[in-house]
Design goal:
Layout lengths: L10 E11 L1 E13 L4 E2 L2 H12 L5 E7 L4
Parallel strand pairs: 2-4
Antiparallel strand pairs: 1-2, 2-3
Length: 71
């Protein structure tokens, strides 16, 4: 697929993102995304699943590292 903004080829990639959750720092690895030369795009459905997981994880503390498949 070609990006309509930068006209480069879009590629499927896996990214890591860090979120503050209550008293914890949550790092989610292997999040599916699409990348071109101008940006990285995470789909709305993936973002919604992550948001729901974060809402249910407010009581955790410390550093948490999980894979997206665990969300």
């Amino acid at each position: 697929m070609i990006c309509g903004k930068c006209f480069s080829e879009k590629q499927n990639v896996l990214i890591d993102q860090v979120y503050p959750v209550g008293g914890a720092i949550l790092t989610i690895h292997h999040i599916p995304a699409t990348q071109c030369n101008c940006r990285i795009y995470v789909s709305n459905s993936v973002n919604q699943e992550i948001a729901e997981y974060i809402e249910n994880s407010d009581s955790k503390s410390g550093q948490i590292h999980i894979s997206y498949s665990e969300v």
